[in-house]
Amino acid sequence: MKIVLLVVLFILTLPAAATLQELDDFAKEMLKKERRELEVWGKGRGDPEPERAWQRAEQTAKANQSAEPVGFGTIEWASPPEALESVFNAYETKNHGRERAFQAGYSIGDAPVTVDFSYVDNKLARIFIWFERRYLDVVSEAFIEKYGKPSRRSGDIMAWSWKKVTALIVGNNPTGNALTSSASLTTAEYSQYLEQRAKYKAAAAAKDL
To answer: Which uninterrupted H or E stretch holds 3?
Structure first.
């Protein structure tokens, strides 16, 4: 019940049309809260090392995970946009600075989905998948079948983590549109790019003060 209330409260604090980064931040914040909840639960159970309850649970889940994803379908990480042409009927949605993005329709099992392919320096670095919430079970089962049990779970948020890739499924995204659920595969390279971009924006904003 506490987790549900936290999710609801967090959703109310987000804008009506959240960006992909805000959705990731939303999921990660919920997982942090779940970690604190697990530590409190461990203390209540008399765990001699309650602060490690989360770590032990994560290690157990990671043992059941598959090998690190090398891309999406037959499209591998770091491949150029041209690799999409023979597999997906994708169209370009963004071309700004170091980043380009393409979008295509696809299906995961019986679930029709929309896939965003993000490139940094013309190298595939991230996959973001949108779908209607009624297909959440279909997509979740497909991810679990392919990647094993999630290393972290909080309500309808699931996360998998490897050395260079992180996967997330968020069942109830505060996006303000019909595609209310999402799944993503994010490389370390894309995360580093986002951090660099955030620092650049912060520095630029500071100069304007």
So the answer is: helix 2-12
